Amino acid sequence: MPFALVDTLFLAAMVVELRMENRCAAGCMDLLKWGLMNASSNTPAAPIPGKAGAIHVDGHAYPGSVAIVGGGIVGLALAYRALDEWPGARIAVFEKETEVGQHQSGHNSNVLHCGLYYKPGSLKAQLAVEGIRAMVLFCQQHGVPYDRCGKLVVAVGENEVPRLRELEGRGKTNGLQGLRWLGPEAMREVEPYVRGVAALHVPEEGITDFPSVCRAMAASIRSRGGEVHTSAEVSSLTWRDGQWRLRASDREHSANFLFNCAGLHCDRVAALAGERRQTRIVPFRGEYYELNAEGAQLVKNLIYPVPDPRFPFLGVHFTRMIHGGVEAGPNAVLATAREGYSRRDVSLRDFADVISFSGFWRFLAKYPRMSAYEIYRSLSPAAFLHSLQRLVPALRREHLRPGGAGVRAQALTRTGALVQDFDYIQRPNALHLINAPSPGATASLAIARHLLRVVSGR
Ligand SMILES: Cc1cc2nc3c(=O)[nH]c(=O)nc-3n(C[C@H](O)[C@H](O)[C@H](O)COP(=O)(O)OP(=O)(O)OC[C@H]3O[C@@H](n4cnc5c(N)ncnc54)[C@H](O)[C@@H]3O)c2cc1C
């Protein structure tokens, strides 16, 4: 594309963005007057307003009624935990689909991550370790299948060894148990068909079935008096007389406190509640292949490459599935629709949202090769196969058949940086989870506990 055209698009994007911000800022004036907009992302807890609706226990206060937008695993985990930690509160989840867990929580790799990758001190590092323990316990208590089968992270060339050493260091700092550094012979005792110069064995990782986890959470919430409304798309949010008024599929509801766990739409739901969209959700589709029976013989459990630390994606890998079979993927290609599970899915609204955001152009300018390569690999089964053969050279084209796909809700900043950590905006009357990428499913119960404590000031 000629540079002049790129520049024009970029300038147009900046103008649209500024205009949208001004409009939103005007809409937020009422809230500003009440002093409700003075907190920033991840700021400490502020007192809950509207004493009328608050419940006070042991010097802590929590809201008497809570609306959670989004019936993915994080919204459900919040409701599940809130019923224990906030006794007496009315808890209601609003999910736009006919069933819970239909988007990211139902379209992912189903891997139980234990905290290997994450920067020590980050929220991901803190919550992944607690999260996997809580998720395993949940699976045990609710009869959801899981298997802590362990995984191998493989350095294919010498140039990847320093980064693998760095991961080992991070894993140890984050409190992982039983990490083992393996040479070429020892790694083949774990995965006989793998090739590499060194590998890290991570015994605590495993696999499960997150859609079943979501269904079990919804059943438990309902059985304990919580509400899970499906086919309930929240289309407006108004703060009036100390309460949120929600319109969800033509019905009015009210609550003292709002949790926004809307995943791929979290920035839009935040905007409905009067927030400025500081970061924008950019959808990255992850496409999978499935291995046929012969190909599946080449993989025992989980085989991962050493990831590129500049991106929050882990690289295409092999995953044994809990109900049988092996998947390979996912890649990370820019999607033209937030719920675009196939290359043919295009949403003009979603696409316009991406290209009207200056951060997107800055991201492209920073990572043009990676962005172009991901598109090429998405279109070329041979390129996808090549990435997989780096780890397992015996894999052949005829072992692969197209599998499913998922779309990641990835927050992007105006400077073009992919937000790596879990992130949220805290207000006295609301909390907006604006970035909950992998390992968000594994860590969902720990994320929930953390957010409830942040809100109640514990
Ligand atoms: C390809 C891929 C692979 C991944 N692999 C793993 C993995 O192996 N392990 C792991 O731990 N994590 C993994 N993740 C990350 C994990 O899936 C997410 O962190 C997690 O599912 C986020 O859950 P959520 O509830 O925030 O979002 P979601 O599951 O997307 O839920 C958000 C919900 O909000 C609803 N919603 C949106 N707008 C509205 C509205 N206006 N009104 C009502 N409802 C609304 C949506 O319908 C949706 O159900 C992966 C993600 C992807 C995409």
Indicate the topology:
Blueprint (H helix, E strand, L loop, with lengths): L2 H25 L1 H5 L20 E4 L2 E4 L1 E5 L3 H13 L4 E5 L16 E2 L10 H20 L3 E2 L3 E5 L5 H13 L6 E3 L1 H7 L7 E5 L3 E3 L1 H14 L3 E3 L4 E7 L2 E6 L2 E5 L1 E4 L5 H7 L7 E12 L1 H4 L5 E4 L11 E4 L5 E4 L3 E2 L13 H8 L2 H9 L1 H12 L1 H11 L8 E13 L10 E5 L2 E6 L8 H13 L2
Parallel strand pairs: 3-4, 3-15, 4-11, 7-17, 15-23
Antiparallel strand pairs: 1-2, 5-10, 6-10, 7-9, 8-9, 12-13, 13-14, 16-19, 16-20, 16-21, 17-18, 18-19, 22-23
Helix pairs in contact: 3-7, 3-14, 4-14, 12-13
The structure holds flavin-adenine dinucleotide (FAD).
The site of flavin-adenine dinucleotide has 41 residues, from helix 3 and strand 21.
What would your notes on this structure say?
- By secondary structure, this protein is α+β, with helices and mostly antiparallel strands.
- It has 14 helices and 23 strands.
- The chain has 4 domains: 1-33; 38-142 and 205-277 and 421-458, FAD/NAD(P)-binding domain (3-Layer(bba) Sandwich), CATH 3.50.50.60; 151-203, no CATH class; 280-418, 2-Layer Sandwich (D-Amino Acid Oxidase, Chain A, domain 2).
- The strands form 5 sheets. Strands 7, 8, 9, 16, 17, 18, 19, 20 and 21 form a 9-stranded mixed beta sheet that branches.
- A hairpin with a 2-residue loop joins strand 1 (54-57) and strand 2.
- It is globular and about 65 Å long.
- Residues 1-51 have low confidence and may be disordered.
- The structure holds flavin-adenine dinucleotide (FAD).
